[in-house]
Design a protein that fits this description.
By secondary structure, the protein is an alpha/beta fold. It has twelve helices and 17 strands. The strands form four sheets. Strands 9-10-8-7-6-5-4-1-11 form a nine-stranded mixed sheet, sandwiched between helices. The longest helix has 23 residues.
């Protein structure tokens, strides 16, 4: 079983971000939230696990490093007795707030993988994206992570902004090379409804063309693409995310969190005060066999895991599989379909389903 924990606090809200979070929260609100989160875990975790161990934990946000590390102590206490000995425990962090002290304390609590939301090394692009750190803070954060014992380190990048071109992306790649980290996530800028960027114009460039340049550059740096937005050197893959793409069950805790167990998806409150008042409350969505089959197809085609061909049983779909195979878009091997170009994942999935 996997566990996701949502931390809905940010130092500032980026104009492209649609994730559930609040900025500028005071310490009393953070403390109240973490008390509710501990209650949620202590009340529900063992019941959801039903005797199973936790294989991975992902602490996301929001910005987990916007909260004092000591507030996490009861959270790890609630998790500790159910963790597998080799569990992967990831926390997201921002370069400006992931201090040596914060990283050191989180490492002592058991976090063994850290993911920095850098987004760019270009100062002008960082300002465009609303980031409140510079290039220097990214290098300092990675150095602090290494000095506190982290080996499994990720850096996020965003591409496809109006500022991007091959020259700028080449500089991003040069900085990634300098950091010599095991994992990189590269996300195309998405304009989400309800965000400040949704009210703007001319914010994006051709994502596919720039994606190919960036992806080829990461390949030249010995990063293997194992999902549409994720690249790793040998043994550097994020096991938690691979679980999502394989359709594994996961428990979600915290406001705005989502869980998936059996044939149901569970939603915690997306209102911070409501969650604090009733942290165990969930809305339930029952998924049909068709729903889950479609999800397995869409997720599998986005990653190296592929799709079990039994999820696509009709005669019409078999013909479509053969069309794609002959066109060189997919590979069919040992009863599974593998996508040869992750940038076409959604198009291929829609064609098949």
């Amino acid at each position: 079983m996997q566990v996701y924990i949502h931390i809905p606090f940010c130092e500032s809200k980026c104009p492209y971000c649609a994730f559930g979070s609040v900025e500028g929260a005071n310490e009393s609100l953070k403390k109240a939230y973490f008390d509710a989160l501990a209650t949620d875990l202590n009340s529900n975790l063992k019941q959801i696990l039903a005797g199973r161990e936790i294989s991975s934990v992902f602490i996301g946000g929001g910005t987990p490093s916007a909260v004092r590390a000591r507030l996490y102590e009861p959270i790890f206490a609630a998790l500790s007795s159910n963790l597998k000995p080799d569990a992967e425990i990831t926390s997201e962090a921002n370069p400006n707030s992931a201090s040596f002290e914060w990283l050191s304390t989180m490492r002592k609590f058991g976090v063994n993988r850290v993911s920095f939301g850098a987004q760019s090394f270009d100062e002008k692009k960082l300002r465009f994206l609303g980031r409140i750190h510079g290039t220097r803070e990214i290098y300092e954060a990675v150095a602090n992570a290494r000095n506190t014992g982290f080996e499994n380190i990720n850096v996020d990048l965003i591409y496809g902004t109006r500022l991007d071109n091959k020259k700028l992306l080449a500089k991003e790649l040069e900085n990634i090379s300098n950091l010599n980290i095991p994992h990189v996530s590269a996300y195309s800028l998405t304009i989400e409804a309800g965000t400040p960027f949704a009210r703007g114009s001319n914010l994006k460039k051709d994502g596919a063309r720039l994606a190919k340049f960036l992806f080829d550059g990461l390949s030249n740096l010995n990063y293997s693409q194992y999902e549409i937005s994720n690249f790793a050197r040998e043994n550097g893959e994020c096991r938690h995310n691979l679980g999502y793409w394989a359709g594994a069950e996961y428990a979600g805790f915290g406001a705005f969190s989502v869980g998936f167990v059996g044939d149901a998806r569970y939603y915690a409150s997306s209102n911070l005060k409501d969650y604090i008042a009733a942290p165990s409350k969930r809305e339930t969505e029952r998924l049909t066999d068709e729903d889950m089959c479609l999800e397995r197809v869409f997720l599998g085609l986005r990653s190296r895991l592929g799709v079990d061909i039994s999820n696509l049983k009709s005669a019409e779909t078999s013909e479509k599989i053969e069309i794609l195979r002959r066109a060189g878009k997919i590979e069919v091997k040992n009863g599974r379909i593998y996508n040869k170009n992750f940038l076409l994942a959604d198009e291929i999935a829609l064609f098949l389903t």
